[in-house]
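Board work, copied verbatim: Thioredoxin peroxidase
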Amino acid sequence: MAVLVGKKAPAFKAEAVINGSEMVENYSLDQFVGKKNVVLFFYPADFTFVCPTEIIAFQDKIEEFEKRNVQVIGVSVDSAFSHWKWLQTDKKEGGIKGVKFPLVADNAMTISENYDVLAGEYDYNEEGQMVFEGTPMAYRGLFLIDKEGVVRHQVVNDMPLGRSVDETLRMIDALQFFEENGEVCPANWHAGDEGLVASQEGISEYLGKRG
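↓ predict structure ↓
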């Protein structure tokens, strides 16, 4: 598994569905450089079981992301039409109607491959034919990308393990606190807590306050 933290987020241009209904071509991260942080998260597939709970959970907290000037983007290996159909389907029927943030179509699986979250890979069999070994879907990868287009946080879950939206917000708060104050964030830091100066004296002072 590649560690992308500290590196430029892999670029892409792909079809996507935005605002819950509009299909667009050549959707990319370029539009957010210098303007917004981005939470780019991968999920296995449309019309499944854990995936809608995560996507709806992100939508339920979308105002918290917007308040922090963060763009949320979902990605799966499904087509843009599949995304569109899922977005038009009521929640009681297994859909995600009401979700407004972009869903990117990675049906060529190249975005998942470049972010190293694809749960399998292409290889050649004994007959020299190209085959896919593993599951042609993405793990539940999540990448926090700063305004310069650099990955600052990543986490990858196996397919059965849903993510915490609140933890994602905590990591955004930590990144923005560091960017604004120059102080680092200790274990279990939450917005409103004190940071610490990245020096032995700063750590000693912080630990002293905690008794």
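The chain has two domains: 14-161, 164-211.
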